[in-house]
């Protein structure tokens, strides 16, 4: 029995081919802007050499599509171990006998050719791995996630100045203040989004008290007030773990910022610029976000509060795929896909706002939430425990919404990212929330 009809199957094949090609051209761009020596070098102990990401992308594609879905013979099982993220910690990867750039590119090409053969004949049966093209969607998202990681590596190495991205749109609406979200249940997670990953499932009802959430991400201007007020020097605003980290790591501003006369500048893909006040702050860790929120008399939103603000439609009571509805993002909705190579000023995407008027939830910056990473109630690991389940626990905080470096295929209202609370090489920012008194929510 085929889960999708012939015509739908053809449409799905085309969509998969398009998405695979889009991911591959981004991978090519991010690995062709540097020479072989730079591809092999480790630019930060937090990151892999770019050539490791490159071959790892091909290896995952071989494992899941060529071998598992296709049932074909391995192309290169000799390299599986080298590109297994669990067997090789990032700091050890440069010392491995990695494929050289030309070999890695040839390997990716061979794997992709096999995948196209497979795509011509595969039947999208009800087998969970292939139903709705799931494994292909997972591999598209995997490549795009590594592309975002490679983009972060370029930021760390101060590279990519050769790329000329158009500036993001200017603010089109005045955006600020808070939005009141009324108390009540909403549906969190999904059962129906075909390419949603295991940790986004299943859909379940969550009841929340009323709360207020910022209408826009915290901006550099907001954050500068925290710095100017001595926020980095005052342990009152920090959690004990946050303060210990601030002292140890000598944090005094977001990553990539430096003093410039009496103000601040940041280094962005190899170019220094004055800090722009109305842009969402980026490259802050969870502890910095939490300290700012405390200083501001607020707190970080829980993950459920973020998702309700992003998906709940007060008219229908339904949860939608995105703040603006169920349609995939366009350039008018959100700043995604490294199109602009920077967060857009707040107010630049009025078409992407939620019905309650919450802006820029999708794109611009990943937003820290106060929630540690766990499975939704009824979670089942699929198709492998190492995507999500092995990270569940108290060590990681959830980030939501995607950044300017996230592709639209790897970003939606249910998509969940996670990282250690001290990490800030990712494109991470935040917005604040607070409890509201019942009287306040009656107004
Ligand atoms: C979901 C971004 C935390 O990069 O570690 C890539 C995505 N998983 N390869 C990561 C991922 C396996 C993951 N994050
Ligand atoms: Fe990976």
UniProtKB/TrEMBL annotation:
Gamma-L-glutamyl-L-cysteine binds at residues 90-93, 419, 423. Keywords: Iron, Metal-binding, Monooxygenase, Oxidoreductase. Fe cation binds at residues 56, 142, 146. This is Hercynine oxygenase. Belongs to the EgtB family. The keyword Nucleotidyltransferase does not apply. InterPro entries: CTDL_fold (IPR016187), DinB-like (IPR024775), DinB/YfiT-like (IPR034660), EgtB (IPR017806), EgtB_Actinobacteria (IPR032890), Sulfatase_Mod_Factor_Kinase (IPR051043), SUMF_dom (IPR005532), SUMF_sf (IPR042095). Residues 20-150 form the DinB-like domain. Its EC number is 1.14.99.50. The gene is egtB. Pathway: Amino-acid biosynthesis; ergothioneine biosynthesis. Pfam families: DinB_2, FGE-sulfatase. Catalyzes the oxidative sulfurization of hercynine (N-alpha,N-alpha,N-alpha-trimethyl-L-histidine) into hercynyl-gamma-L-glutamyl-L-cysteine sulfoxide, a step in the biosynthesis pathway of ergothioneine. It catalyses: gamma-L-glutamyl-L-cysteine + hercynine + O2 = gamma-L-glutamyl-hercynylcysteine S-oxide + H2O. Its cofactor is Fe(2+). Residues 177-434 form the Sulfatase-modifying factor enzyme-like domain.
